[in-house]
Amino acid sequence: MKLFQSKNTHDHANSCYQEILTPLGQVMLELNIDDERYTNLTKISDCFKLHNGGTLLSYKQHLFIAELVICNPNYKIPNHMKVEKVIAGIWRIKPLVKNLKCKFDTKLIPINLNETVCSSDSGQNLDAITFEYKEFKMTIGTQDGNTLLNRVHEKDMMANKFNRLDQEFPDNIIHYRKDYTGLSVPLTSLERNEVTQIHFVIAWNYALDEYDSSTWFAADLSSKAILSGEELI
User: Fold this and answer.
1) What's the distance, CA 201 to chain centroid?
2) Residues 82, 87, 89: CA angle, nearest 5 degrees
């Protein structure tokens, strides 16, 4: 562990195989740099088991150091709402070169694409996609463009040099896959030796009501809430 800190001790895991399985299919978390793809399942350099059952995956290359924490975050939703499960993946990356270009992706590999309904479901501070399959509803969310720009100004682990067009049209910073099975966060100019952080949250439940928004509220988390579940900073 180099980019996340904790007061707890952590052991190396015997296996780094870290699937994210949901009732709608498997969710992949990816870091793309040039033509190289690093995921929660591949090209892992090291793996640690965390204090409360989460996993930290480490990636070490000549261009960067990256770590991915997959955990059950602390979350709060209105009392009348309910979700079956919430899983978060939070990346940190430290470039070892100037102006590193990368892209963080998440996507659902559905059990049955033809029967899965998916659509954008964005709101204040959150870009999200919500899926429906049989009796289940699931939301995958990440911080929206305005939030990322605010983090630049606050020096909150966001060292990307956003261009003028992104600053004028922050709603275009987060990209949706053409088939609406996932979200992408492209960062085109990361500062050398400055740590940047991006997270995704996955929440699902039984879709008792088509208008139920419990999974959306559960996906709208801060990085602090995510990390507190594993007592990380």
Assistant:
1) 6
2) 145
CB within 8 A of 12, min separation 6: which ones? 46, 47, 48, 49
Q: Is the dihedral of CA 8, 12, 13, 17 positive or negative?
A: positive
Residues written for the chain: 233
Question: How remote is the C-alpha of 191 from its chain's centroid?
Answer: 21
**230's torsion region: left (phi>0), alpha (psi -120 to 50) or beta?**
alpha
Which pLDDT tens digit goes with each residue over 162-173? 999 999 999 999
Structure tokens that stand for 127 in this block: 């870009």
**For residues 139 and 215, is the Cβ–Cβ distance under 8 A?**
yes
Each residue's pLDDT tens digit, 108-132:
999 999 999 999 999 999 999 999 9
DSSP state of 215: H
d(CA 122, CA 120): 6
